Description:
The complex is a heterodimer. Chain A is mostly helical. Chain A contains 15 helices and two strands. A two-stranded antiparallel ribbon of chain A has the order 1-2. The longest helix of chain B is centred in the N-terminal third of the chain and has 20 residues, at 2-21. Chain B is globular, with a radius of gyration of 22 Å. Helix content of chain B is 40%, strand content 20%. At the A-B interface, helix 5, helix 10 and helix 14 of A face helix 1, strand 2, strand 4, helix 7 and helix 8 of B.
Amino acid sequence: MASNEKSYAPGQHPDLPAPTNLVGPIAWIRGNLLSSPTNIVLTALAAWFLYTILPSTLNWLFFDAVFTGEDRNACRAAGEGACWAFIGERFKLFTYGFYPLEQRWRVNLSFVLLCLAMVPVLFDKVPYRQYGLYYAMAFPFIAGWLLVGGNILVLELPIVPTDKFGGIMLTLVIGVTGIAFSLPLGILLALGRSSRLPLIRIFCIGFIEFIRGVPLITLLFVASTMLSYFLPPGTKFDLLLRVLIMVTLFASAYMAEVIRGGLQAIPNGQIEAGDALGLKYWPAMRLIVLPQALKISIPGIVNTFIGLYKDTTLVIIIGLLDPLGIGRASLSDPKWTGLSNEVYLFVALFFFISCFAMSRYSLYLEGKLETGHKR
Amino acid sequence: MKVVKTAAIAATLSLTAALSLGAQASTLQDVQARGELNCVVTTGVAGFAAPDENGRWEGFDVDLCRAVAAAVLGDAEKVKFIPTSAKTRFTILNSGEGDILFRNTTETMSRDVDLKLTFLPVNYYDGQGFLIRKELGITSAKDLDGASICIQTGTTTELNLADFFRTTGISYEPVAVETNEEGITNYSANRCDAYTTDASALASIRAALEDPSAHIILPEIISKEPLGGAVRQGDDQWADIGKWVVNAMINAEELGVTQANVAKLASKAGNNPSINRLLGTESNMGEMVGLDNAWAVRVIAAIGNYGESFDRHIGPNTPIGLSRGLNALWKDGGILYAAPIR
């Protein structure tokens, strides 16, 4: 008690700990769960709900689940719960699709290179970021060569036809390509749409409105089947390449509108300030307008990315099998029929992890770029 | 304006040129130049086509793709499988993305004539049945009044179902699904009272359900479903190749030529002229159709005869467990009756 009696100069008194009934778990429960009669009722309902579904869910997911086994019957014999042995046996198919077994190191290597390429793009406090960004720009082409194969200078890899791509790897190929190319394209389209040159403006508006007016599935279908009616026979135009182009164009149209929203939020005074400094169009855009516009657009941009990433499941319509397609096809294995819950959960988990990571990163980026303009 | 006009004319001209170039070379030459057969299959029907854990397609339909590749390219592995849904299969075939289709597809007049397909011999005689929960107490399809029924869109089963209920004058509520597997999921989650599809699939679906004894397959078979391969109309040589590969496999079973004994039988002409013609040790059947005379030897060495393929994928010793039934040889009481190779 002695310290309490000590006298301090005004304003110098150290902070005292909060009263015990305002901190700790009990206070948290009282404050958050039982703060009003409505909340008490809702808490009770939620608790009852959890009590009813949680034990059976956990039992099915983990405690009664079967993790090894030869086929469905072995699973049934071993336990009541989920048959994860199925996913285990099919994991490689889910990951690599139909990629040849002895070449799968190339997929692994590409994935490692992808992770390396993302570091300088995503975080700005990494050493040698400048060179890292050059590498990241080159990455799509390096990965393209690694995955497809062929001859570059002295290096030669056996060619893997793109119809062997599948599963998570296919989703990543389409997703990463779409994301990497749709952002710059979208920026150009957004700038073009507000251009003072009529030809450019009309082209950009026409392109954006056409793509947005047509469902992606239609574009994919056109890319896969209708193109062969128009191209001279014997023209080899890789199916995956067509898909990549269509997905990128589709995403870039949406991206353009998102970025246009950001551009319109920038007051004219900013551009005039650029003019006053003697900056021409491109420097003014690059140094003044776009950094602000893109910052505002981050949630919308990431939204488009996530949409694009999930849209990759549509490729099943043209005969490419993404994780969902692989899962569905796997369900037709006579040894394993009837395990749809496991497959759909696994695929959902994969997409959730990817999309949640993107959304968390966008929050982090917004926080980092926050300069007090938030309303 | 002049620029636009010129550009439009140029575009039209190049389009016409491109179109007129289309569909000139024969499919056989295309496939041999490409070194790969593009085969349209399903995205997955148990026993007929599905990838195994290493990503290798397996099944009764898949075997036929491999058989054609063995005959045409000399290597049963040179097949690119194009998985398609019921709705996209014919578009993929007709656009030229696929060379040949083996996708448990029912041969019908409108598909043959209107969709411009040429069907290959029937490789599986099927019919449409119903799978239903026992607790509903229904024992005949005529009692299905007001039932909700899961049905794959874009299939003949969808049309048969409508016909059946129209002729019997009772009502039903269709629940449209895209794939067979989706139908099973919906049915087992109780979103429809009954599931209808080809009877060949129903037995295996029932066997895979949580409690098979709680479900019954109704006795009625409401349609004829002759399942066969198909090619684009207009290339008779290619259709002939598909046709005779299927016939060769059926004839091989009839003549007792198997994967095990084909090499020995083909090594020199024996005293059964039918076998000799099939295996090319006598006359030149293969050359007539644009292949070499050992075409059927390669097919049987790679795939086996019809019965071997059947037993391997959908026969009684597989989880599918189908008996031969209608699909037995004519000698054994079925209706499988392939035209002779002579």
